[in-house]
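Revision sheet: structure tokens.
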Amino acid sequence: MMGVFSKLRTFKSGFWVASAMELLERWAWYGMFAVLALYLTGSTDEGALGLSHTEKGQIMGIVTAILYLLPIFTGVIADMIGFKLSLIIAYLILASGYYFMGEVEGYWPVFFVFLWVALGAAMFKPVASAIVTKTTDESNSTLGFGIFYMMVNIGGFIGPAFSSTLRTKYGWKIIFIQAAVVILINLVILLLFYRESDRMQRQKERFGAAVMRALKNIGAALMDKKLTVLLVIMVGFWTMFNQLFYTLPTFIEDWVDTARLKAQIAGFSTWIAEFMSGGGDRVNPEMMINIDAGAIVLFQIIVSAFVQRMRHVSAMIRGFLVSIIGIGLSFYFKDGLYVIVGIVIFAIGEMMTNPTFSSFIALISPKGKEALYMGTYFIPVFLGNFFTGFISGNLYEAWSDKLTLLQREMAKRSIDMPEVGTQFSKNEYYELAAQKLQMTQQEMTDMLWQTYHPNKIWYVIVGIGVFTLLALYVYDLLVIRPNERREEAAKAEL
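Predicted:
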């Protein structure tokens, strides 16, 4: 322990500035992103946008996918104009983007403003990591990146926690104002405390040439079939993982009796119940999702210590299996306690899999090409976000959207209902339908659950996970284990 404290003193000021900025940037991002699905599809009489789930899936899936491609270009820009100027531009884009996300309405205005936010996030992402790389060395880089990624999860936990309370008390727009204010705090920290001397010398080649060089490097890495097959397999993991933010919040909103869940939690802790509800009368979906980030903050070190004893691929396979069980439980039941248990189990699987994946890419990289191979990490993240949009959008709307299923049921019973739109909100539709069906809201929800089984979407989500698990097992059996045996034989000959 004393060794850790002595190493903490070896970090340069730029490292601590980058770590603080990472925490705040993740606070702003997850404070917005954790509730974005709810905001896009929520009832207009509560200040949300009332978009369809297909529109939500397209906005979140396409824009977030683009975000993970942009660092190819924004990283080159940062090298050319300097880290500090890049961050100033990033923060100005982010602050303005977050603010206007709360001001615009309609599919295309929201799409383009969110794309503007993604540009700002893509400007920030490679610079923060680069600062940590340049301000650490072989003696402290492992601890340094451990601290840095701990900041990611602390920010990822704080943001939704604040958003939950703020939106309950003040409405939706305050969420986006919060994100903009947090980013402006980051701008102040940057201007006051970051010194450009912490940055590497500026790149002198032209932008186009630098981008082509980056693309050629990625292409060269992808020529390694061992790496490419692994990246394709990991698309399945990210597609399954993203359901936590894209699909599960709206599933909870539609089907889980979170008022009852609050009463259950209050049975053993009133404070936790109030914290989870943001002071409202029910547990907010984003606070249930936020259990994932909270578990990572508390237990990542313990899980990592446990996983270190395993082979990399064995740890990933077991992590996949745990994640599949967790996500399956979260979507199969409409009892809030089971959903929470599922999220905790999923978090354990995520802690086993995600860091191990990064480490495994470095392990299979040829000596001297580690950075080249690590540059491919974003590819499965990009594709996973893109494919998630279809599951969270088109599929959810067809199989699991409460409004769609209720409209289907009312049509089947030949009961006339007004169209949901600017003059008639989703909540008003629910209230009128319950009256005409002579049911309470909960009885109506239970009837739809029993009739249409909206939890059947778990077959697809879990199916993707199982397919990924089997693919990784075959990959280990046919590629990794034979390679390990060859390496062991070569060492034995020496």
